[in-house]
């Protein structure tokens, strides 16, 4: 097992209003560690020295909870395609590397502490329209509503979004279009979701805008960094649905 | 708030506005190039075309007013989007990384502002004749319907204008920047309008980029062609 000496430049910020700065740390890791385990080692060192450990969010550590958010050398979730930071292993780096670790940067995602940001705007976008309204009561027969296999597959690929916010972090405009579109598209692709399509498109896009996210420039940096590799085809779907919803809606505008 | 106001106030709607005005401006860019390429057919072709446009009278002003309003809307929406986008991230990254964004897509505002500056310069140069009055004020005499009339010698103006290397350089640089702007803009507007399909999109992107390069090259060929003496029959009138 090969030891790696690394120099880390990590964004430290004591609280939402505090002035933050990049601080430099040295840590000894090995290539089998995940990126988060490497940070655990650093934090253990800091705790033993009586210093404040680096705050970062983490939960499942298996790439499905979407909390371990950090920009590693300018790339959300680091250099490995289709993975979250917790699935990124230190073998992606080499001995002597200098690594920059920064929080998501977006006005809509205020920093709570160090690498932890507040992603509540995503919850409000979902609450605005990312749901289906169905009556409670006895569940209907399975297979009563036919769904073409291709649509089911598409819906599933969009539903894979874990809401981590890497799309926002990677976008030069801090746009949350990929997130919003993925949540829209996975319902749009299913008959149960399509009935509320118009209202959903209006509500989700306007909530997205109200939260202060930017507009999409069609550079597709979001798709490149998305740990679930959500396609920007969802954004084209939302663009079309929103435009047509505004022009067709019968609700008073 | 009307539907259109609601649409244009949203991030997606502003982009739709950019796309639609972008399409209309692209048609102008194509049409204007078609007209300009007449320079290769010589003096008479260019001057006849110029006289035809002038002869449209009030209709010419209708077209100009439409073009101007589309151009202004494109710029106003660009400013609105840029302000939103800038506000969305006020603190940047200490270490940034570009994954897939093209150079053209990253400098749309810059290339757009350069194109605007060029359009103003171009109007002052060849339309209004403020910049180089001596070259602009040339006329030719032609027999039309049995009477001799004097008309603007656009061909002579263009040839004399581009015999001066300084203008050739300015125009070539401007057209490279216009081509760069269209390189991203043309293919991007399909995504904005929701036209995306795994089968067609790669072809749409390739064709749009080819058109952008072809338009740029077509425009560049004129000043360069004049400077190298490749344009149509010089003496014929």
Explain the layout of strands and helices.
The complex is a heterodimer of chains A (about 250) and B (about 240).
Chain A (H helix, E strand, L loop, with lengths): L2 E10 L8 E10 L4 H14 L22 E2 L2 E2 L21 E5 L8 E3 L2 E2 L2 H10 L19 H11 L6 H5 L6 H12 L2 H4 L2 H14 L10 H5 L7 H16 L5
Parallel strand pairs in A: 1-5
Antiparallel strand pairs in A: 1-2, 3-4, 3-5, 6-7
Helix pairs in contact in A: 2-5, 2-7, 3-5, 5-7, 5-9, 7-9
Chain B lengths: L2 H7 L1 H26 L6 H13 L2 H31 L14 H4 L1 H20 L5 H4 L2 E6 L2 E6 L1 H9 L2 H28 L8 H27 L10
Antiparallel strand pairs in B: 1-2
**Strand order of the main beta sheet of chain A, please?**
2-1-5-3-4
The CATH topology of the largest domain in chain A comes to: Fumarate Reductase Iron-sulfur Protein, Chain B, domain 2
Helix and strand element order of chain B: HHHHHHHEEHHH
CATH class membership of the largest domain in chain A: Mainly Alpha
What's the number of extended β-strand segments of chain B? 2
In the CATH hierarchy, the third-tier topology of chain B is known as: 3 helical TM bundles of succinate and fumarate reductases
Secondary-structure element order of chain A, N to C: EEHEEEEEHHHHHHHH
Measured by DSSP, the beta-strand proportion of chain B falls in 5-15%
Question: Which superfamily, in CATH terms, is the homologous superfamily of chain B?
Answer: Fumarate reductase/succinate dehydrogenase, transmembrane subunit
- CATH second-level architecture of chain B: Up-down Bundle
Radius of gyration of chain A: 20 Å
Detail the poorly predicted runs of chain B. none
Radius of gyration of chain B: 21 Å
CATH superfamily of the largest domain in chain A: Alpha-helical ferredoxin
Helix- and strand-based class of chain B?
Answer: mainly alpha
């Amino acid at each position: 097992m090969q030891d790696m000496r690394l120099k880390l430049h990590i964004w430290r910020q004591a609280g939402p209003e505090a002035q933050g700065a990049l601080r430099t740390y040295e840590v000894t890791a090995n290539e089998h560690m995940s990126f988060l385990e490497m940070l655990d080692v650093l934090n253990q060192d800091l705790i033993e020295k009586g210093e404040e450990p680096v705050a970062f969010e983490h939960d499942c550590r298996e790439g499905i909870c979407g909390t371990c958010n950090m920009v590693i050398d300018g790339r959300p979730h680091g250099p490995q395609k289709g993975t979250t930071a917790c699935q990124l292993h230190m073998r992606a780096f080499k001995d002597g590397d200098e690594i920059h670790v920064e929080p998501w940067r977006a006005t809509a995602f205020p920093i709570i502490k160090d690498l932890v940001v507040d992603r509540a705007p995503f919850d409000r976008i979902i609450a605005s329209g990312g749901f289906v309204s169905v009556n409670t009561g006895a569940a209907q027969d399975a297979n009563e509503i036919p769904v073409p296999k291709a649509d089911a597959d598409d819906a599933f690929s969009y539903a894979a979004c874990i809401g981590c916010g890497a799309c926002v972090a990677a976008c030069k405009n801090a746009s949350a279009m990929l997130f919003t579109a993925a949540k829209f598209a996975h319902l749009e692709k299913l008959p149960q979701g399509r009935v509320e399509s118009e209202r959903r498109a209006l509500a989700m896009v306007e909530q997205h805008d109200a939260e202060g996210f930017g507009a999409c420039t069609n550079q597709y940096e979001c798709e490149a960094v998305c740990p679930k590799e959500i396609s920007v085809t969802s954004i084209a779907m939302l663009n079309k649905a929103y435009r047509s919803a505004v022009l067709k809606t019968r609700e008073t505008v | 708030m009307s539907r259109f106001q609601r649409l244009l106030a949203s991030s997606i709607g502003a982009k739709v506005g950019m796309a639609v005005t972008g399409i209309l401006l692209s048609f102008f860019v194509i049409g204007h190039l078609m007209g300009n390429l007449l320079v290769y057919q010589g003096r008479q072709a260019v001057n006849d075309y110029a006289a035809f446009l002038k002869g449209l009278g009030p209709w010419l002003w209708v077209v100009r007013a439409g073009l101007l309003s589309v151009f202004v809307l494109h710029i106003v929406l660009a400013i609105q989007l840029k302000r939103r986008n800038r506000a969305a991230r006020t603190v940047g990254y200490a270490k940034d990384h570009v994954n897939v964004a093209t150079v053209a897509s990253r400098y749309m505002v810059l290339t757009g502002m350069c194109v605007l500056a060029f359009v103003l310069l171009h109007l002052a140069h060849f339309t209004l004749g403020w910049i180089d009055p001596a070259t602009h004020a040339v006329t030719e005499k032609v027999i039309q319907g049995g009477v001799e009339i004097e008309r603007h010698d656009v061909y002579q103006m263009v040839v004399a204008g581009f015999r001066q290397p300084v203008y050739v350089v300015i125009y070539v640089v401007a057209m490279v920047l216009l081509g760069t702007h269209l390189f991203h803009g043309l293919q991007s507007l399909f995504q904005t309008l929701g036209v995306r399909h795994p089968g067609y999109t790669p072809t749409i992107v390739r064709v749009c980029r080819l058109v952008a390069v072809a338009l740029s090259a077509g425009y560049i060929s004129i000043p360069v062609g004049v400077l190298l003496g490749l344009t149509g029959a010089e003496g014929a009138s």
